[in-house]
Each structure stands twice: as C-alpha cells, then as structure tokens.
User: What shape does this take?
Amino acid sequence: MKGSTSYIIINFIIVLLTYLLQSEVVSIALLSLIQIVYVSLHIYRMAPIKLSMGLLFLIILFLFHSGHSILYLQGAKITDFWNMTFCTSSEYAIAQIYTQLSILFISLGYMYIYVDYQRFTAFGVGQIKRLPFLLFFVFTVPIFVISKLMQIDVAESEGYLATYALANHPLFHYGYDFIEICPSLAAILCVLYKDKPTVRFTLAAFIIVFGTYSMISGHRISALIQIITFVIVYYGAISDITKKTIVVFLFAGLFYVTFLPMVSYLRTYGQVDIEHLTELFQDQRSGSQESENSFLVEFGGTVISLIYPMKYAGETYNYMYGATYLLEPINILPKKPEFIVKNELYQHAKVYVDNLPNRVRRGLGGSVLGELYSNFSWFGCLFAFLIGIFLKYIDMAIVTIKRNRCLSYWTIMLILWIPHTIMWIRGYFQGYISSMMIIVYVIWRLSLRRK
Assistant: This one.
C-alpha cells in the first residue's frame, strides 16, 4: 500500500531514538507522544468507522502504558511514581521500546490487512426475530441490576475492598457471564430496534445512567467500558456523529476525567457515597486535587505489569510459548475437569502475573503487552500484529450493519467481545472463549426467520 514503507521507517526511527536516548526520560516521553499522534492520524484516516476500535484500543494502550509521559513533559520525575528498588529508569525505557514496537505492529495489522465484509452479511436485519434476544436481555437485566446494587451497598457499609468478597456469592459465581453480557446485549437490541427511537433511547439511558451510578461502588472500569461499547456500536452501526454529538462527547469526557479519580480516591481512603463524592469534588474545584493528572497517574501505571515480566520471564519463570491463548478453548466447558483446573501449566498460563515473585505481584493487574512478553519474549511485538487484525474485524462487522443492514453470528460475537478487548489492555486474554458462545449461538438460531 502506498506510503506503508515511509510509515514503517518513521516508526522504527522513533523506536531507535528511544533506544539511543533511554537515559533521558523526557526525550522518551516526547517520542512516545509523537508516535501515538502519528499512528492515530493514520488509523483515523483508514478506519471504516469514526469511533473505531483500532483507534480507541491504541489510545487506551498508550495511556495505560505510556500515560506518565505526559506528566514527565510537565516536569514530573520518574521517581515520583516508581519504587526504584524494583524498577529502574532503564527498565522503564526498555518497556517503552516494547510498547512502541507493539503499537507499530498492531497498527500495521489493522491498516494493511483486507477484511472481506461479506462474511458478516449472512442475514438481513429484517430476517431476524427480535423476541429471542429481547427475552435474553430481560433475563439478564435483574441479575445485572441486583449485582451492582449489592456492590454499592457493600461499598457504602464495609468499604470498596469488601466488594471482592461478593465473588463467592452464588449470584456472582453462577451469574457472572450474564452480568457482563447485559450491557452489550442492549447495544445489539438497539441494532434490531433501529426503527424504534423510544426503545433505543430507553436502552441508552439505562446503560449510561445506571452504569455511571454503579461506579460509586468503586468498580469504575467495567462500567465505563460497557458505556464505551454501547457508544461504539450505536454510532458505528445505527446513528451518525454530528457536531452536537462531538460537543456531548467532550462534556462527557470532562465529566469522567473528573469523576473517575474521585471514585479511586474514595475507594482507597473513605466510603464511596454521595456525601464523600461531593466533598472531594469541592476539593478538586479548589485545586487541591488535579483530576487530569490523577487520571494519568493512576492508569499510566499499567506499564509496571510489562516491566516485571521483562525482568523475570525466562529467569524466575519459563516463557509460556502461547499456552495462555492455546489453552483458552478449555473455558468453553461449563464445568472444567479437576485435573485441568489443578494443572500447573493451566494455572500459570491463565494469569501470567501469578508467575511473578510474591514481593512484586501484590496488587498487580494485568497487561496485554506483559502477557505477550510472558508468552513470546520480544517476538510478542510481532504477534501484536494479530491484535490489529482482530480490531479490524470488529470495525468491519460494525460498519457492515450500517451499510448493508446485515448481521451474522460472528458479528454479534465480535460486539460482545468489545468489552473484553478493551479490558484486555489492563487484564488477561481469559474470558474471550466461554460457554456463553454456545448460549448466544442458540439464541441466534432461534432468532432466524424460517420460510
């Protein structure tokens, strides 16, 4: 494709400069920022939809793994964020090189792979009965709402950390997949009810308003991603983005940039309730809390989940050589055999941070890049190319709905995988393949009209 050679060369020059200037944190920060702007412009021009997963994934990946770069350019020091006993400036620089290479190969996979849209045109929307999906959604709503209200109640009475004990509650243990799928089903219903503005508005209000309210339990990211998923599908497959829409997006962005650090602060230092939220908001307005910087400080720390694998993989634990991804189909079993669950390979491959030394993995979350490195070392950057292809498939599935008014089983599954894909940046590959695929397939077959 025209311009691809220059695109690759410019990105490699940025990576090379990062390597040569790895002792200069400010220089690395500037180079990282230049690269993500350069890559984002190319993705935006080539994406089939405005709110593309290709663009969104790379921007969030940058913010989570290189977000501190913006703070370094404002005068912050690396010692402000990292305990240099476990992480040196050199290790941070090497992790940034890995991040830059991964961003390059993800973008190449997205931009330069052709996806045949016809594979998503199995049936016209008019050939699909709404009732099976509507009943499935109605079934999941009470489970979703009750679970969120339980989290809020526990957070207000016992604190945020106590909400994790709910994982052992039967509702969360047996109903987890139904809780997670509910908001995405709302997006699919909007596609099926495109000719019913009232239904679409009701679904949008439920997901956005209740989702935002549920964040006061301290669980912010899952709710925010569910809202983002709804917006991507809504404006990618149903409606168009106008100037008014852009203004609404800007105000919403400012609101969440302010709101998310407030919830983070409260879940750590106090009860998550309306009274404390109001008090902290007043502190932010007075300048004692800078919400934008708090946002970057908190989420930019994901890079540590890449730094540690780069430090310990191959020494403290063996590389997993793709076992993380190859063993995932086992999760399609409603109940996994005990010999599999207790198998050491399966346990270590499922959550890569469990292989790290105890002194560094406490409170450590996941990272899509750290997971790649734990499996393939530096070759993980090359495998990131496949992530770009997958992102292109999601965008093509969504745009096909708008252009051709068509759906397929895989279109629906790709939509349902959007939250997992965004969460993967800060999480693990687990969850992509599950018994829910079978349930959705049954619903899909029931929804097809027969002559």
In short: The beta strands are 123-124, 406-407. The mean pLDDT is 86.
